[in-house]
Amino acid sequence: ALREALDELDMSDHMLASGYRGLLAKRLAELTPGDLQYTTFGSAGAEAIDFALKLARGYTGKPGVVSAVKGYHGHTGLALAATDEFGAKFGHSMPGFRRVPFGDYEALEAAVTDDVAAVIMETIPATAGFTMPPDDWYPRVRQLCDQRGVILILDEVQAGLGRTGRLWAYEEWGICPDIMVCGKGMSAAIYPVSTATYRQQMQSFFDDNAFAHISSTGGSELGCVTALAMLDQITEPGFLEHVQAMGQRFEDGIAALKEKHPGVLKGLNRRGLLMGVVMSRDECGMLMARALAQRGVIAVYAHYNPNILQLMPPLVIQPDEVDEVLDALDGALAEVGESIGARA
Question: Which of 63-72, 221-230, 333-342 has the highest mean pLDDT?
Answer without folding.
Answer: 63-72
